Amino acid sequence: MSPLIAVTRRITGQWEERLRAAGCELRLPPAGADAPMPRPQLLEHIKGADGVLAMLTDRFDAEAFDAAGPQLRVVANYAVGFNNIDTAEATRRGVAVTNTPDVLTAATADIAWALLMASARRLGESERDLRAGKFHGWGPNDYLGMDLDGKTLGILGPGRIGTVIAKRSIGWDMKVLYAHPTGKPDFERETGAKNVALDQLLRESDFIVSALPLNDRTKHLIGAPQFAIMKKTAVLVSVGRGPVIDEAALVTALREKQIFAAGLDVYEFEPKLADGLMQLENAVLLPHIGSGSVGARADMAIMAVDNILAAVSGKRPPQLVNSDWQPKTGA
Questions:
Q1: Which residues contact residue 325 at a Cβ distance below 8 angstroms, ignoring those fewer than 6 apart?
Q2: 188 is an active site residue
């Protein structure tokens, strides 16, 4: 029988043709649907599937695995992150979990720099005022922002995305710091960065970019105590996972001018924002578009499909997350 692949959102690229050419049967979202499936609909949608091409917004826990059924072999997440999937439960059931690293690295690094510059130079605030008819000509004290040249950039998350963000700082002749418990020699060789304690990074950095994954160690890594030791001129950017930053504490820090500005593409309770964040002029807010380039999203789709095709054939997927996964008997 042809493997049944359930796809939970309409996405860009040539992924559908690739699956059909491999002899797969597809179960697609309703035409015109462009929002996360409600939980009951998702559970019904994945029933009987051999593979699922899932979104970061789809929660895969024991209930979801039960709904899919024992024939499920792979959940391919259309994202680098996979904290929406209970990987231990997947491994126990013989379900491979995969993600899409590398192909969105450059696109996400671009957004980090866009947020950094927009926050530092108050682009959101000044553009809103111009559109509201508040621009009446140049003024010497209007919208004064922070300089980038020669400043210190602190990287939280010296992985693939953090590496590209750090390498792109060379144009501004920046000093790069990072904080990692054991050090990352490859990161240092590629970027010239120095490994320091987290508190030192927060005290010394003019710009701090979080590209961290979410786990028990990183949740609320940045909260009220950390904002208290940052420079009042500091700019914080987040493109990794939202809950790394205590959003309520961030609102307080921005409102009380403990730091200069923040630029966010991810949120603690996404898509909900912390109370008061939307009203702050010194916050630049994007709707999770880090990987949102045509090329990156198309490449993510193909990578997810290739992982699915490997798993349903009983092979080890190239981007396997649960490394102790074993193919199901008879796969």
A1: 90, 91, 94, 95, 96, 97, 316
A2: no
The catalytic residue among 16, 188, 190, 270 is 270
The per-residue DSSP string of 3-48 comes to PEEEE-S---SSHHHHHHHTT-EEE-PPTT--SPPPHHHHHHHTTT
Per the annotation, the verdict on 270 as an active-site residue is yes
Q: pLDDT tens for residues 285-310?
A: 999 999 999 999 999 999 999 999 99
Residue 241 annotated among the catalytic residues of the structure: yes
Token pair recorded at residue 15: 């992924």
CA distances from 179 to 49, 201, 212, 226, 243 (A): 42, 7, 11, 14, 18
Of 168, 241, 247, 268, the active-site residue reads 241
- Rounded CA-CA distance 315/292 in Å is 30
Q: Give the CA radius of gyration of the chain.
A: 22
Specify the amino acid at residue 237: V
The mean predicted confidence, pLDDT, of the chain is: 96
Cα end-to-end distance, the chain, whole Å: 12
CA–CA gap between residue 179 and residue 170 (Å, rounded): 19
Q: Is residue 259 pLDDT above 70, yes or no?
A: yes
Are 265 and 289 within 8 A, CB to CB? yes
- Whose CA is closest to 9, among 18, 32, 242, 20? 32
Q: pTM higher than 0.85 for the full model? A: yes
How is residue 257 written in tokens? 């001018």
Sequential DSSP letters for 222-244: BSHHHHHHS-TT-EEEE-S-GGG
Give the full edge-to-edge strand order of the sheet including 283-285. 194-195, 175-178, 152-156, 207-210, 235-238, 261-264, 283-285
Sorted by where each starts, the structural domains of the chain and their CATH numbers stand as: 4-103+293-312 (3.40.50.720), 105-285 (3.40.50.720)
